[in-house]
Amino acid sequence: MRFLHINADALCSLQIFEDESHPNMHMQAKSKEGLSLFGILNNTRTSSGKQLFKQWFLRPILDLGVIDERHRTIECFLQTDNLENSGQLVSCLKNIKNIPKIIDNMKGNLNVKDWQSLLQFAFYCLKIRNIVRELNHSENIPIFTKIRETFIVADLKEIGSYINDVVSSVIV
User: Fold this and answer.
1) Are residues 14 and 88 in the same domain?
2) C-alpha to C-alpha distance for 160 and 24, rounded to whole angstroms
3) Contact of 85 with 131, CB cutoff 8 Å
4) Which domain holds residue 108?
5) Is 137 in contact with 82 (CB distance < 8 Å)?
6) How is residue 136 annotated by DSSP?
7) Are residues 89 and 158 in the same domain?
8) What helix, strand, coil percent values describe the chain, rounded to 5?
9) Residues 119 and 46 grouped into a single domain
10) How confident is the model at residue 24 (pLDDT cuts 50, 70, 90)?
11) For the chain, how many structural domains are there in total?
């Protein structure tokens, strides 16, 4: 993929990002996003979502196919007959924890909370798959096709059952 390089001066002039000092003088090391394009448009719910969104601003993509795909995906979510499903999708995504972090923890010892988060992940993947199947105007949108093909119901149920057995044996 090709990206547009934007230097610091351009980011500043265009007010893409604007750090404001924390109003509490004891917390001056921390800053928050001020009045900027990023601050206005950022409706992300997770730290990893915020990081990805920030990368999109720092390195805008030049590939018109990817831009068109993103536009069509957003357009699908904003269709009047998809608003309820879009809201359900947001609710599902709020319940999915930072899975890469949990997978990294698997190298050591997972606690019951991590196992429960993995179980939730499998459960909400099933719900997300069902919601995506119900979306109108979602044909030929690659992300939805990928979800329908990748989130295999039998596999997710088997994973959920296995994790449930592990959690039950740890609790007992």
Assistant:
1) no
2) 45
3) yes
4) 64-171
5) yes
6) T
7) yes
8) 65, 5, 30
9) no
10) low
11) 2
Half-sphere exposure of 22 (CA within 13 A, CB side): 8
Single pTM value for the model: 0.79
The number of helices, as runs of H, and strands, as runs of E, in the chain is 9, 2
Per-residue pLDDT tens digits for 42-53: 988 777 888 999
Tokens for 14, please give them.
């265009």
Burial class (CB within 10 angstroms; exposed 0-12, middle 13-18, buried 19+) of 10 = exposed
Measured distance CA(85)–CA(102) in Å, rounded: 28
Residues in the chain: 172
**Count of beta carbons in the 10 Å neighbourhood of residue 134:** 12
Provide the 10 A C-beta neighbour count for residue 86.
Answer: 16
Q: Is residue 111 part of a domain?
A: yes
Query: 110 and 87, same structural domain?
Result: yes
Domain boundary (31, 58, 85) is at 58
Same-domain status, 122 and 136: yes
Q: DSSP letters along 103-128, please? A: HHHTTS---HHHHHHHHHHHHHHHHH
**Residues 129, 78 share a domain:** yes
Condensed to tens digits (0 to 9), the pLDDT of residues 102-127 reads: 888 777 777 888 888 888 999 999 99
CA distance 158 to 152: 10
> Does residue 142 share a domain with residue 78?
yes
